[in-house]
Structures are given as C-alpha cells and as structure tokens.
Amino acid sequence: MKNNSSTVKQAAEAFAKGDYERAHQLYSELSATLGDGVVKANLELCERRLRSSVEANTEPPKASLETQLKETQRLLEVYYRRCQVLQQQLVSARTSER
After folding, report:
1. Residue in 47, 11, 2 with CA at minimum distance from that of residue 29
2. Residue 19: left if φ>0, alpha if ψ -120 to 50, beta else—which one?
C-alpha cells in the first residue's frame, strides 16, 4: 500500500507541474493495481489536459485571428460604453441622496 501512496503522490505532483503524460502513466499503473474506478477521474483529467494542450499548439487560421480581434474590439467598446453609463448612474444616485 505504501508503494501505491507514493505513486499517487508522484502522479499528483506530475499533474500539478503540467506533466500530464507522466501523471497519466502513473495513474494507469495505479488503475492496474487498485482498479479503474479509483483513478478514473484522474485519468480523464489527464486526457482532457493532453487534448487541450494539443489543440492549443495548433495555430488557428489567420482569418480566424482577425475575426476574433474584431469581435474582441467590438466587445471592448460595448463594455466601455456600459461602464460609462453605470458611472453616470452612480454619480446621479449619489447626488440625489444629498
């Protein structure tokens, strides 16, 4: 059992450091000795992180980046205007309290 707790600790440390392949390997070893149900969630998390890191390493098309930039700029302007309106409302509320 002590070996398993050491492996659990190593797997958790590997996951925390972002070494999802190593963590997955260690959790797979634990799965073989302790059963799938014990570490199933951990294995799933490792697999998700590995998939997302692969997806993050693929470069999106340039048109997609330009579209995203335009949408971000549009939303920034919307939020800025909303902030201005809220500030005006706050000032109005404070002056009407006096």
Report:
1. 11
2. beta
Lookup result for tokens 């998700």 = 48
Structure tokens at 26: 């260690």
Contact 25, 7 (CB under 8 A): no
Indicate yes or no: pTM above 0.85: no
Angle at which helix 2-16 crosses helix 20-34, to 10 degrees, equals 150
pLDDT digits (tens, 9 = 90+) for 26-83: 999 998 888 878 889 999 999 999 988 776 665 656 667 788 888 889 989 988 899 8
Query: What is the C-alpha separation between 43 and 24, in angstroms, rounded?
Result: 6
pLDDT at residue number 11: 93
